[in-house]
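Predict structure. Chain length: 395.
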Amino acid sequence: MLTRSIVHMDLDAFFVSVECLRNADLKGKPLIVGGNSRRGVVAACSYETRKFGVHSAMPIGLAKQLCPDAMIISGDMEAYSQYSSMVTEIIAESSPLFEKSSIDEFYMDLSGMERFFGSYLWARELRTKIIKETGLPISMGLSINKMVSKVAANESKPNGYKQIIQGQEKDFLAPMPVQNIPMIGEKTTQFLSEMGVKTVKTLREMPLRLLESVFGKNGNMLWKRAHGIDHSPIVPYQDRKSISTETTFESDTIDIKRLKIMLVAMVEKLAHGLRKEKKLTSCIAVKIRYSNFDTVSRQTHIAYTSSDHELIQVALDLFDRLYDRRILIRLIGVRMSKLVHGQYQIHLFDDTEENIRLYQAIDRIKLKHGVDKVIRASTMGINKHIRLNNNAFSG
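Prediction complete.
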């Protein structure tokens, strides 16, 4: 069986690094990229602020208390996306198979490329090329699977690299706190701590049946990760330019209430699709086709977001401006375009911690039980008929 050789590359403090490239005076200073309101959250922060306990997703107000001298930058998602695309193009030119897991993280499958050390040397040369051509710091880890490589990259930050030789995965992970393992969140970490489990080594020593009895099917995941086991494949990168949906009514209608309910359901499903793919949109369009087949559309540019409540309001406003003939409608459609990669699931710079937690909870339920399990009451019975696509959307 062929030994896997998986590389994980992670751009260090990506948003902050881009800002420092654009303004050299910012280098070495405590920086926060995020919303300006005290109820906003930290999207990214420099290592200078992390020394004070500041971290991503922290409320801006708390971050300022911890680091009063921090400079807050509102952020430029378009610029970040452009730099991310530069790195993507460099990787795409060289790597036989790669996955872009977020705006600043990449996995590469180098299995079969020479021998294991050859893959490591190749990956280090690619990392050097990225740094030279973009000016961005990037950390790298290499091992036999995605999970261990990601941990290795995190351990090599900032701007370093690390290889975990096959067979050394358990020894590498053993002394680490359990929260260093990807997908072990705050609640699980706290629960394990109350059980006396604080390191990966202690977690590894727990019987599988005990973990399954306490955590259900997630117990199996915890056991595997503690043992350095991860068989998840590299998902080939595809850059979707837009996401859209449209509905043709069985009977032409002029029922405005029904039309708007359908529009809300469409936007709700599209927005969830964006968050699932870790993307944000800055352009939304609404299309109407009348009973005589005349077709009209209108679009508007907005701040980058994937938040239901913001996108729904924009779509309804577009519909009100677009529907001015008061004749029967046979089709309506919605498209979201100018997509960028964004690991923060909603309005990147100005949303509140409460909204972030709400959308994260909703998306977890939808991913686990289906997209129609949590919907607005007004759209019940409609969502299941809506299909997403990335087809052309023309007026």
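Summary: The chain has 14 helices and 13 strands.
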